Amino acid sequence: MVTARRPAARRLPAALRREQLLDAALDIIVEHGYRAVSMESIARAAGVTKPVVYDRFGSLDGLLRALLGREEQRALGAVATAMLPPAHSEATDPDALLVDGMVRVLSAIQADERAWRLILLPVDGTPLAVRTQVERGRRLLRAHLERLVAWSLRRRGGPDLDVELAARTLLVLGEDAARLVLTHPEFPPERIGAFARSLLTALPRSRVDSPPPQWLTTEP
């Protein structure tokens, strides 16, 4: 009996092969959860042999770390860019900056749904290393929000809030809004932004002259 051999995989440059394997792993995780991902399932999805996957990443843990690192870098880059005011904008009103930035962030999440599902939505069998890395990203974002909240409260002249708790609250509400955008089409970014704007108008304020900090007006 002659055993059929798998056709040889098309040779790709190392960088392209790496991205192909990471994309294959992401597809498996999003569709079937972490329990379904293995070096064999990734190789099968990419149309290569297992040694090719091992040669690029060494182990499944190494591959998962590389995948999350890639998606985290893309995601945090999109958030940092979205939180900047539009180029040449004269609008430095803190409420408008916060709402417009939130809408841009949610729109970026909507445009890159697969990556954000990996970060925001609980996936079956998420490894501890992945959860640890996601939490590290949340701490970085929370620190960014603390600076934004502190400037916003000074700029708008109130209310008198605990900056750290306000940033934590915004992060929790923002993550929940992101999950709504990913899972419920009836909650588009614009609808959530309109609701946030109506809430901010209810907060007391007295205009205080304070230019936006440099980190808000300079590209990262």
Describe the structure in your own words.
Helix 1 (14-32) crosses helix 6 and helix 5 (94-111) packs antiparallel against helix 9. The protein folds into two domains: 10-58, Orthogonal Bundle (Arc Repressor Mutant, subunit A); 66-203, Tetracycline Repressor, domain 2. With 220 residues, it is mainly α. It has helices at 14-32, 39-46, 50-57, 60-82, 94-111, 113-120, 128-156, 163-183, 189-201, 214-217.
Kindly list the characteristics that best describe this protein.
single chain; about 220 residues; mainly alpha; Tetracycline Repressor, domain 2; about 70% helix; disordered N terminus
Computed CA radius of gyration, to the nearest angstrom = 21 Å
Shape: elongated
Outline the low-pLDDT stretches: 1-6
* CATH architecture level-2 label of the largest domain: Orthogonal Bundle
Number of helices: 10
* H/E element sequence: HHHHHHHHHH
Number of strands: 0
**Proportion of helical residues:** 55-70%
How would you briefly describe this protein structure?
This protein is mostly helical. The chain contains ten helices and no strands. The chain is 69% helix and 0% strand.
Task: Describe the secondary-structure layout.
Elements: H1 14-32, H2 39-46, H3 50-57, H4 60-82, H5 94-111, H6 113-120, H7 128-156, H8 163-183, H9 189-201, H10 214-217
